[in-house]
């Protein structure tokens, strides 16, 4: 059994996408990030960056004590290596998968996240910041669209690289992006959206009691963090 410390955000969805594809038994442990549950001492013990998702694998390969993993990219890689699925054993294909996994972790996720923040959540609408991140998101969509021009998925076969990127494109309209401008992404997006595991993963997210509208207090908790936050 795997404990998944989770909230239905793009980074959380990455892990349920993979777990549903793998068919591994897992239990969702909600971490209400708007209420500050990511700062609880028990959670910080497994996720020192006070961010979800994180997992506890109670049946690691080779036995022994449970293994904890934080950071969504590390979790995807850990589970793929544990099961031998969704990352190729071929050296060149494996490198491609890792390149695009890290591309998402270092590019698409952070830039789309800042896009969401300044376009949707920021109390002050700053035109320069909004344009900066909408434009950079657009550039990254262009990179992904070119990559998908001659292949179904980013590293050939469906992989953890696709599962990392897909949740960050679900909110494309809120990011100021039109998938009609990116036909290769649109084809890729539709193919992943219609997979049974994707449908099941997003249905799991609906079972978590996430408020429809983020309160001002939730925003304060999420966006007002400093080093002192982890010492609460």
TrEMBL record:
**Residues annotated as domain GST N-terminal:** 1-87
Stored InterPro entries? Glutathione-S-Trfase_C-like, Glutathione-S-Trfase_C_sf, Glutathione_S-Trfase, Glutathione_S-Trfase_N, GST_C, Thioredoxin-like_sf
Pfam (any one):
GST_C
Q: In this protein, which residues make up the domain named GST C-terminal?
A: 90-215
Q: Which family does it belong to?
A: Belongs to the GST superfamily.
Q: Which PANTHER family match?
A: DISULFIDE-BOND OXIDOREDUCTASE YFCG (PTHR44051:SF19), GLUTATHIONE S-TRANSFERASE-RELATED (PTHR44051)
Instruction: Name the chain's protein.
Output: Thiol:disulfide oxidoreductase
Q: Which organism is it from?
A: Lichenibacterium ramalinae
């Amino acid at each position: 059994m795997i404990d998944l410390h989770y909230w239905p955000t793009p980074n959380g969805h990455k892990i349920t996408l993979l777990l549903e594809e793998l068919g591994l038994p897992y239990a969702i442990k909600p971490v209400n990030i708007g209420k500050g549950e990511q700062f609880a001492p028990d959670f910080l013990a497994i996720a020192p960056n006070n961010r979800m998702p994180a997992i506890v694998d109670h049946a690691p390969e080779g036995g022994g004590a449970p293994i904890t993993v934080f950071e969504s990219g590390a979790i995807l890689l850990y589970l793929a290596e544990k099961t031998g699925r969704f990352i190729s054993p071929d050296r060149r294909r494996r490198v491609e998968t890792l390149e695009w996994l890290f591309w998402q972790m270092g590019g698409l996720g952070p830039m789309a996240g800042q896009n969401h923040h300044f376009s949707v959540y920021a109390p002050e609408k700053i035109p320069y910041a909004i344009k900066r991140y909408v434009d950079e998101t657009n550039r990254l969509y262009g990179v992904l669209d070119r990559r998908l021009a001659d292949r179904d998925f980013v590293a050939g076969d469906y992989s953890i690289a696709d599962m990392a990127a897909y949740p960050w494109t679900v909110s494309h309209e809120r990011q100021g992006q039109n998938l009609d401008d990116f036909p290769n992404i649109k084809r890729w997006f539709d193919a992943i959206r219609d997979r049974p595991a994707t449908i099941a993963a997003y249905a799991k997210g609906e079972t978590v009691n996430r408020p429809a509208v983020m309160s001002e207090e939730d925003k304060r908790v999420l966006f007002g963090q400093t080093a002192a936050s982890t010492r609460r």
